[in-house]
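call fold target=Methylmalonyl-CoA mutase
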Amino acid sequence: MSEKIRVLIAKVGMDGHDRGAKVIARGLRDAGMEVIYSGLFQTPESVVQMAIQEDADVIGISILSGAHMTLLPLIREELRRQEAEDIVLVAGGTIPAEDVSALKREGVVEEVFTPGQSMEEMVRWIRQRVEASPASYARG
């Protein structure tokens, strides 16, 4: 793969806490990825549209509001509606373990990064996942 991995870090809903999202964005950038930050208060539709326009490989949703069981399925559905399911959807934030299991089991997100996980773990997971994607071979 010759191109940099492109990651959209997004905040959805009324969640105004973006310090963690900015830390993750900087960490991914420092790891050599191209990172786009959505800014606050995005809708599921605007996040997916932004990811398509930016040719993102990954959407990383930072969520601390507790609305993850509502907002993440809406983003997954919008990815399907826009025929953009090749974009990897991950989430991060304070998400209870039982919700993490449900979101992954139901195919809403591929991975959830919770507090305590290292930046190295996130970078390694994203690189392995994107490089394993058939879409990355088509671009690279």
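return ok
Residues 6-132 form a domain with the Rossmann fold fold (CATH 3.40.50.280). The chain is about 45% helix and 20% strand.
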